[in-house]
Amino acid sequence: MHSEMYGVYSGETHEQFIQRANRVFPVDRAKAWSRVERAVFNHLLGRMIHEHGYGAITDTMLDQSRDDMARIVRRCTGS
Predict the structure, then answer these.
(1) Other residues' Cβ atoms within 10 Å of the Cβ of residue 9
(2) Is residue 73 a contact partner of residue 36, using CB atoms and an 8 Å limit?
(3) In this structure, are residues 9 and 53 in contact, taking their beta carbons and an 8 Å threshold?
(4) Alpha-carbon distance 37 to 54, whole Å?
(5) For residue 22, what is the DSSP state?
(6) Which of 9, 51, 53, 61 has the lowest CB atom count within 10 Å?
């Protein structure tokens, strides 16, 4: 259940979180990621899930992770 007041999803399951995260990190794009992109994604999302739990991760946090991932990958690959 989404709480508009706090922007969190209380009681969200792993599968529900995955579906929501797929809107920010579409599967068709993720399949084409390089090893660096996958490593950065795993690190950023793993840390966020560990620190906050699925239900406390907002859509804004996912968007910020996507932007952070792009910046980190650019720095690592020089592109």
Answers:
(1) 20
(2) yes
(3) no
(4) 22
(5) H
(6) 51
